Amino acid sequence: MESYKKEFIDFMVSSGVLKFGDFTLKSGRKSPFFMNAGGYVYGSQLKKLGEYYAKAIYENFGTDFDVLFGPAYKGIPLAVSTVIAFDSLYGKQIRYSSNRKEAKDHGDAGIFLGAEIKSGDRVVIIEDVTTSGKSIQETFPVIKSRENEKGDITIKGLMVSLNRQEKGTGNKSALDEIWEVYGFPAKAIVTMGEVIEYLYNSPWGPEREIIINDDLKKALDKYYSMYGAE
């Protein structure tokens, strides 16, 4: 496994963003792990997070895009920290954009926050994690409504931090289904398989604790026997 992936897994765990236990997801699934990008609250964390995302986006989509769209609400700090990192690492000015949950009817009116998405723009979407694909079902119409109003807009792809490798609406992973349904690639910095491989019965951190022990591994195996993608 590449060293940057190990570093990112360490970063998620040490930041308290990747947790293990009993959780109910937005999709309604009961999961033995949970990833919440809202746990990144310090400037140093957001700086690192933006750099990880920027490097992954650069590796997968290059610099050939104009707007980084982060769906409200968690996508907003992700987009902001990543466009800052993109400028710092690659000298490329990328605009950030997001949506409001409710349209504003005064001042900076409308449903969009940040940059205006204009005709001809090439957009990369940024999210924390995609489990069943529900989030993109909400995001895609927001961007397409802009296309209907402004003209041609190209979605270059989606970048998430963690690929949970679970079924979407069928037997394929939600990220694979996004490609089939919406016609753009969906990528992740790391997969859950890589997380399990790295942490299972491996002493972690200064306390050399075992994050994924045999019992948790059994719970993960059971979860993926029900929801794992082909």
Poorly predicted sequence stretches spanning 5 or more consecutive residues: none
Helix proportion: 40-55%
Our count of helices gives 7
Structural class computed from helices and strand pairing: alpha/beta
Percentage of residues in strands: 25-35%
Radius of gyration: 18 Å
Tally of DSSP β-strands: 11
- Mean pLDDT rating: 89
List SSEs in N-to-C order. HEEHEHEEEEHEHEHEEH
**What's the main sheet like?**
7 strands, mixed
Distance between the ends: 21 Å
Shape call: globular
Written overview of the protein:
The protein has 230 residues and is of the alpha/beta class. 41% of the residues lie in helices and 25% in strands. The chain contains seven helices and eleven strands. The strands form three sheets. Strands 3, 4, 5, 6, 7, 8 and 9 form a seven-stranded mixed β-sheet that branches. A two-stranded antiparallel ribbon has the order 1-2. Strand 3, helix 3 and strand 4 form a beta-alpha-beta unit. Helix 2 (43-61) packs across helix 3 (75-90). The mean pLDDT is 89. 5-phospho-alpha-D-ribose 1-diphosphate binds at residues 26, 73-74, 100-101, 104, 106, 127-135. Residues 48-149 form the Phosphoribosyltransferase domain. Homodimer. Its EC number is 2.4.2.10. InterPro entries: OPRT, Or_phspho_trans_dom, PRTase-like, PRTase_dom.
Outline of the structure:
The chain is of the alpha/beta class and 230 residues long.
List keywords for this structure.
single chain, 230 residues, alpha/beta, 7-stranded mixed beta sheet, two-stranded antiparallel sheet, 25% strand
